[in-house]
Automatic annotation (TrEMBL):
GO terms for molecular function: carboxylic ester hydrolase activity; palmitoyl-(protein) hydrolase activity. It comes from the Eukaryota. PANTHER family: LYSOPHOSPHOLIPASE-RELATED, PHOSPHOLIPASE_CARBOXYLESTERASE_THIOESTERASE DOMAIN-CONTAINING PROTEIN. SUPFAM superfamilies: alpha/beta-Hydrolases (SSF53474). Residues 1-29 are annotated as: Disordered. It comes from Phaeomoniella chlamydospora. One of its GO terms (cellular component) is cytoplasm. This is Putative acyl-protein thioesterase. The keyword Iron does not apply. Belongs to the AB hydrolase superfamily. AB hydrolase 2 family.
Amino acid sequence: MAESTDEGDKSSPPNVSLEKNLRQPNPFIVQPTSDHTHTAIFLHGLGSNGEKFGAELIQSGISSRGATLTATFPGMKFIFPTARKRRSSAFKRATLNQWFDIASLKDPMERNHLQVDGLIESADYIRSIISQEMKAIPSQNILLGGLSQGCAMAFFVLLSIVFSIGGFVGMSGWLPFYDDFDEIVNPLDPQEADSIFSTDKETDNADNDPFLQTIRFVRDLLSLDGDKITTSMRDSTCFQTPVFLGHGGKDEKIDCQLSEDAANLFKSLGMDVSWKCYPELGHWYKIPEEIDDIEEFLQKKAGFCPTDRYA
């Protein structure tokens, strides 16, 4: 395991403007121990940073076989970005690392308009990292995920890209603007909703198609162009990305129900979602059970085989 300290490795991708580069802390990077075949991008929780979260996950995230993630996937490069410091509405305007502002941890939907600026900036930054990695490996060899607010942020990054990636792993997280998504997927009048799996030409252009509405809602909120997204693009978008979500049943910070709600919503959109609750777990990841589940997900659902070599 090699933790990069070289500035060339740790700098933000060159396709981000200089101004934005200066505002983003350097990510913590763990280089693969063999030929680079895959990349995992994991986002930390509120108040943490890439190095603290990344070093602990790499060192303590041990499976029941006694193996770390780097040992199980030697060709995987791990990138742990750090959110820049922002004033926190939830903590009396204290300055801390957060991907976006949040008014309340008990109710992440409270005053969610405060989240928009951070979501826009952070999503742009994480997408630039994905773009940079795609210069070396296929998008299907990229894993995106995070813990707590990092999971919430990663959800929005996933929903904002117009291609699929290898997999998504979320731990103890929630979906920002869930109520808006739920209204799209489960409208008050069921007769107004066409089947989300329909391929009828009329449905391709229907404004009430949940697939189109979901993509356009996210891209509009993030100030991205969504007008060119059509229903026929479903098979080549983020909706083809398999998702694993794990949450502690005794999470004292983020209610486990929020994670399950997100899982059910994604399933309603036709996504392949694996969700698991760990009854005795608080606000963290379960060792070794959740690490085992993540490894199994990566191998069986995402196709990340430890012996794979990208040629």
